[in-house]
Structures are given as C-alpha cells and as structure tokens.
Specification:
2 copies of one chain form a homodimer. Chain A is mainly β. Chain A has a single domain, classed as Tachylectin-2, Chain A (5 Propeller). The first copy, chain A, has 2 helices and 27 strands. In chain A, strands 20, 21, 22, 23 and 24 form a 5-stranded antiparallel sheet that branches. The first copy, chain A, has a 4-stranded antiparallel sheet with strand order 1-27-26-25. In chain A, about 50% of the residues are buried. At the A-B interface, β12, β13, β16, β18 and β19 of A face β12, β13, β15, β17 and β18 of B.
C-alpha cells in the first residue's frame, strides 16, 4: 500500500486556533469536511474546546444554552456515585450523560491543500436545543452549485444528523433534522441516481448492539426513506466492531468509491474503501480486505482519543485521492492514496 | 376515571388461534391495530408463537429463513457463558441476541367489537431478511380510501418500522422501510396537516439512554424528515422511563388526541392521553397527569410479560373512545373511556 502521509502532518493543530474564551482551551481541530470552492480547498473543521480545569475533584462540562446563546459550565463531581470518567470524551454521571468538550465548525482555506488560513469569523456554531452538546463531523457534498452539509448535532435528546447548505462558506442555512437519534456519519451522494438522491447513514440498534452502515433514498434531500442495510461489521476482518461512512462517495469507472471508517474490538479506528454499484449504490461490490490507512504515525497514535484515523472527506485527483482525516481526535492530517491501491485492497 | 373494561375481557386469547405447526404453541394474541372497514371492526392481531420446548437445558428460538420461506428452530444452550435468560422476551447469548417467540399478523373481524372471527387465511407474515425475528405491533391509519399499516420488523439488523397498505385486508402491499433501527411505535396521522403528512416515531438514543417520542413530516408517507422531539419521559410522573405512541391520533375540538403508552421504572406499562395542536402536531398542549388505563385486572397483571397494557389502536364513538389493547403481552382486551375523562386527566 503506497499511502503517503503529508510530510507537514498534522496540517492543522489545536494551537492554530484561539479559544473562544480565555478560560477555555482548544483540544481538537479534526475530522474536517472538505471541498473545492473557486480556486481554493476548503475545510469545515471540527473545533473542540473545553473549560480549563485546575480542579482535580470535579469535571467542568461546557453546555450551550439556546436561550441565552452562551456556553455555560457545569461542574460534575468526580465523587458522584455510579459515575464513570474512563472515556475521555464522555462522562456517565448518575442519571445523566455529558460530553467533556463542545465542538463547532470553522472554515479553513488553502491554495495548496497543506497550508491553511483559518478565518475565525466564519463559524457554524450551536444554535438550538438539539445542539447544546455541540456540532460534530461535517461532510460537504456539492450538488449542482450548492454545497450541502450534513453534520451531527448532540444534545441530551440524542445524536442526530442535520442538513445545512451554503454557496459562499460565509452564510449557512439550516434545513432541518434528517436523521433522528442515534444516527450519524451521514453522507450525501453528489448527484441523483436513477431519479433519487442517496445517503449513507449509520443508525444504531442498541438491542442487537450493532453500528452498521445503511443507505436511504430521497426525492429532495430533506425527506428520506426506502432504507436498506448496506454493510455490517465483519467479525473476521479488520472492521470487526463498528463501521460508518467517511468521505463523500465519488464516481470511478468501477462504481461509487466510498472511504469508510471502522473500529475494531481494540477501539482502533482505521479507513478502508467500499465499492458500490454505479446505478444502485445499495449493492456492495467490494470492500477492502485490509485498511488503506491505519494509525501508525505519532499524531495518530496519541492525542485526545488515540489510535484513531477518521475521515469526513477526500479530494479526487488524477489517479489518486487526497484524504483529509482526523488523527487521534486531535489533529487534521492529510494523506495521498493511489486509486489503484484502493482497488487492489478489494 | 370512568374507564370501563369490557366484561368479556380478554376478547381474544392465545387459545383462539391454532398454532402454525403442531410443534408450536401460540403464546400471545395481543397489541392489535384496529379500524372500521365496511360494516365491521377489523383487528390486525399480533400473534406470537414459539416451539414447544420439553428441554430444560436449552431454549428453542424460532427464526424465519427468507431463502427457504420457513421458520427454523435454533437451540441455545442455557449453559452458554455470558448469556442471560431473565427477560421472557429476549435471550442475550454470548455474541448474539434472539427473541424467544416469533410474531406475525392475523385479521380478526367483528360486528359488535367484542366477538371476533379470526380468519387464519389472511395473514401478513415475515417475508424478507429484515423480518426474520418477526412482525410486531401494527397500526392502521385510513387515509382517503387506503388503509396504511405501519409495523415493526425485527431481525439481527435491528428493530425497524415498515409501511404497507391494503384496501381489502386480504392483500397487503409492502411499501418499504420508513424508519431505520431502532425505531418503533410509529403511527401515521390520518390526514395531511398544512400540506404535510405527519408521523409520531420512537427512536432510541443509546448514548443518552432515552426512549422518547419524536414527530416527523412527509410529502408522501414514504420519505420522512423535519424530525422534532415531541415528548420525553417525565421523571416526576407516571411516565418516567419510556414513552411511545399507541393509537392512531384522532381529531377533537381541542386538538389531536393521542393515546400513548409509558413504562415506569418498575417496567409497568400504562396508557395516557396526549393533546397536540390541531395545526402543528409537534406542539404538545397537554398530557395526562395520571394514566387513563393502568394494569389492574388479572389478565393485565399476569401473562407473558405481566403488569402491562399497551395500545396500538382505538375507535372514536360519540363522547367516548374504545381502546383495544394488549394485556400482559398475551391477550387482547377492550375498554371504553369517556372522552371527557381524557381531557380531565390533563
């Protein structure tokens, strides 16, 4: 596998972005959506922040208040019975669950795809009661001349997927909730196929403990149905715990190519390729026997949630793809993968 | 509360239906959908069956095989490590989850709403890989002259909701999956409201351990979006663990009236009323402070899953509603509730 990590990796780090408040710290600039816009490469970066916490006895949890339009800080005592602080991302308190950080999106621009300018004025920020725990893991799909953004919103009501659109990456219009909880890693195909829009989704079945990829159809991007199961975890392979869509699928002469992520039973997140029928993307033609990118570099192995690479977008170039990905839930990194290597992985 | 249980209750019992095979037993005839059709009252009964099991050392699990179109029987050893047989409905084996019975639908007809003829030839039975663990808890919504049926399909891929329709209750046309996992207790409103169809849904958020009611819109009943949270469990009331839609909502002069179910922290299932804005049913106007029906009769307290009343449909009559409901996941029962009592419960 000739996967080539960018020598400048990580191309974006938490220190590249100032915190929202002096009492906050930026802990992640990761999992960016990516697209070309005019003569630039644009990332919609997930920026995660948390209150600086000098107290060993309690956690400080940031929560967006939709009424006051401000982030409030809640103290959770570490002595709380029946609580669990093992996962760095999540606090399981007695009767409530919290996230340890709050995420939102910032726009990063680049001419060369390696050096990015981050404009802090262009921000997609929590704005309603479905978004009180933050916005996560956007994907951008260009359809005609509109840029549609699917993004995850988290609140105590659940983990949902919302749709927004923009045509300038300065103003974003929210179009509503397209997946009710818990459903994330939703990516839109870039064109209608046989008269329907398609999206890959990732609903959860708690009863059967599965995190599988499904696919849905829509007449208009707003209303979705005709759901089908697409791909489950493969007990005998590298993708043996959870699978979910990553990048926006793109056309190849062999079918739709989707870069997806999988977690294995050691909670290691890797990337693979999935080939879907060009006329019926609910038909899986092939998937990678081995990952095309797995955590190996220092910045992938250690961070906020180590041993993880996770992509929300890639760019097609001649004979290769450029994958932007989150590394260890902390950094944004970039890698080039020859298209041939994706096909050879099947 | 002047809730009046039918003296003939339970109006349908498992012994009223012959098993599919001589080595099976019928263990439940419950949770019926209900509608008026021509001059009859029609129930779409959930019939649950399981293999007769003389073996104390293992469970016999019925699974529909979509390739052979037959029910196969799987043996699960009770000695299996990491397994759990505590819930009479579900077996948690080492790496798999099974249901202890398989359900499908049969049509029951009545002139008086109390004495039912059950025609075993009219059956909606599992027919594909999404339905291998059975069909559960249908609701019938008449829209114009079509009868739309939402029903739960269960398989190892999850608990989903499918749509079907009929205009004779002999032939049923499947229209696809409208909710991906886990999402059940989906009921359709009987008409368009301000240009959109509406459905109440019940997605699950495993991260936040919530089983709340949501509401969605559709242009055509097939594709759904614009999801909104409708009603969560109320920590301080009778509905403090899970809530879900029950009957098909109907119009009153005060708004849409929905008979919903709730489980409390003792896993007791009761029924209450919910009043929704007539022009915007995502607006909750009122809900019952106390249940309008809670388990009390012998056939509600003891059965397959005791201490449970659960409705999938009711009929409106002058000044009262007739609720058909599953009792203890075993029987079908009937009760009359004065409409005034529903409003007085708010």
């Amino acid at each position: 596998m000739a996967t080539l990590r960018c020598p400048e990796n990580p191309v974006i780090r938490p220190k590249d972005i100032p915190p929202l408040r002096t009492d906050f710290e930026v802990i992640g600039t990761f999992n960016p959506a990516v697209t070309r816009f005019n003569d630039e490469i644009i990332l919609l970066l997930r920026v995660a922040q948390r209150p600086i916490n000098p107290h060993p006895d309690f956690e400080l949890v940031p929560i967006y208040n939709a009424q006051s339009n401000e982030i409030e800080i809640k103290e959770i005592s570490r002595d709380c019975p029946d609580s669990n602080f093992d996962d760095p991302r999540i606090i399981y308190a007695a009767n409530e669950v919290f996230l340890t950080s709050i995420s939102y999106f910032q726009v990063a621009r680049s001419k060369d795809g390696i050096n990015f300018d981050i404009d802090t004025s262009e921000v997609l920020f929590p704005a309603n009661n479905y978004e009180t725990f933050g916005l996560e893991d956007a994907r951008i799909t260009r359809i005609d001349n509109e840029y549609y953004i699917t993004y995850v919103a988290v609140s105590p009501m659940g983990v949902i997927t919302c749709l927004a659109k923009t045509n300038d990456f300065k103003n974003f219009e929210r179009l509503g909730i397209i997946s009710c909880p818990d459903n994330k890693d939703v990516v839109l195909f870039p064109e209608k196929i046989k008269g329907s829009y398609y999206a890959i989704t990732r609903p959860v079945t708690p009863l059967f403990s599965k995190h599988d990829m499904w696919i849905a159809k829509s007449p208009d991007l707003l209303f979705w149905g005709q759901h089908k199961h697409l791909l489950g975890a493969d007990q005998k392979s590298w993708d043996n715990l959870k699978v979910g869509a990553g990048a926006v699928p793109f056309k190849t002469d062999q079918g739709w190519l989707e870069i997806y992520h999988a977690a294995d039973k050691e909670n290691c997140y890797s990337l693979g390729a999935l080939l879907l029928d060009i006329n019926d993307p609910s038909r899986v033609l092939a998937k990678s026997k081995k990952p095309i990118l797995k955590p190996q570099a220092d910045y992938e192995l250690e961070g906020f949630f180590g041993n993880a690479v996770f992509s929300c977008g890639c760019l097609e170039e001649k004979e290769k793809i450029i994958i932007y990905y989150g590394a260890a839930d902390k950094y944004t990194a970039r890698a080039e993968v020859p298209l041939k290597d994706c096909f050879d992985s099947f």
